[in-house]
């Protein structure tokens, strides 16, 4: 028998994060494409990001044929938040007058690349990247490379670049609570042993 979960944030009722999730408007449309393997993960930051954004949407799957028919919902210019040889710094688009649809693959690098492979129109979109030197607050996972962020952190950083520094920082509050809850559940000693925590959680 499966555990009860909140229908909104998908957390157990005793650890529901809904009260901490803001509801923010944005000029930028954020479309998160989540690999199915991530949907049931305990640390599902993409779901938190979608809940926090009035102009955000989360779709789960590997293939998204509808993107070829309506890649930008008319008024938006679509771009893919994903590294690549032709990727440009997101800050370069912040001065453009046309609103953006920021498409964000959610999954491990391998799963995200599979989503791009299965969706050629998506892979063909202009790519943008965040600034170098960013550091994740995601203390429960080792970053696969320097500057790697969780999906929620990447979205917050991107929106702050596009629409004003600090405007979307409130989205990090449930993220921090989620991490603290996971650390508390495993115990400080186990956290330090497995994740090398040198500072209090």
TrEMBL record:
The keyword Chaperone does not apply. InterPro entries: DTW, DTWD2/TAPT. It comes from the Bacteria. Residues 2-187 form the DTW domain. SMART domains: DTW. Its EC number is 2.5.1.25. One of its GO terms (biological process) is tRNA processing. Keywords: S-adenosyl-L-methionine, Transferase, tRNA processing. Belongs to the TDD superfamily. DTWD2 family. PANTHER family: TRNA-URIDINE AMINOCARBOXYPROPYLTRANSFERASE 2. This is tRNA-uridine aminocarboxypropyltransferase. It comes from Azotobacter chroococcum NCIMB 8003. The lineage of its organism: Bacteria, Pseudomonadati, Pseudomonadota, Gammaproteobacteria, Pseudomonadales.
